[in-house]
Amino acid sequence: MMKFKPNQTRTYDREGFKKRAACLCFRSEQEDEVLLVSSSRYPDQWIVPGGGMEPEEEPGGAAVREVYEEAGVKGKLGRLLGIFEQNQDRKHRTYVYVLTVTEILEDWEDSVNIGRKREWFKVEDAIKVLQCHKPVHAEYLEKLKLGCSPTNGNSMVPSLPDNNALFVTAAQTSGLPSSIR
Q: How many other C-beta atoms can be found within 10 angstroms of the C-beta atom of residue 95?
């Protein structure tokens, strides 16, 4: 199913969720510094770069395209961290990947067109900032810390077809103490 906007096509899965893709962009394979970008809607707030998938686009390709457009970086696409659902105000289903940055452009599409900014954050600081600005994005980094960091031996999450995918919802992390979320 697709809805058309003046300059983009939105794609939806069979359950009516908007299909999105994003990347946690890390400065190095140690995954201790993550790149956040300013929101196009609220320029004083930081978010994880990502956006809607185009028709016929694979999630990994969409994630790479989105970080190139929004953050002006290229890199090595790593593991699929998970598929996150946002049900409350919008029905989004976001494929979140890990990307190790290998190239940083001086000027990029969103910096030129809308004045978007980017900044490196230590993971702990990024979680705090995102909890204030975009709590669903903080969940991505919290999941990374819980079980998918490269240092704990679980560096690969198997790729699953859409019908067997791993979903993480706010309800699954909200009951945990913040010290382990």
A: 23
In angstroms, the Cα distances linking 78 to 25, 82, 99 are: 10, 12, 5
Q: Where are the alpha helices (DSSP H) in 49-175?
A: 59-71, 109-114, 123-133, 135-147, 170-174
**Which residues face 50 on adjacent strands?**
22
- The answer to whether the predicted template modeling score (pTM) of the entire model surpasses 0.90 is no
Please pick, among 33, 54, 57, 69, the residue that the annotation labels catalytic: 69
Which CATH fold would you assign to the domain 16-145? Nucleoside Triphosphate Pyrophosphohydrolase (3.90.79)
**Is 69 an active-site residue?**
yes
pLDDT by residue for the chain (181 residues), tens only, comes to 333 344 567 888 888 899 999 999 999 999 999 999 999 999 999 999 999 999 999 999 999 999 999 999 999 999 999 999 877 667 899 999 999 999 999 999 999 999 999 999 999 999 999 999 899 999 999 998 887 544 433 333 333 334 334 444 444 344 434 333 3
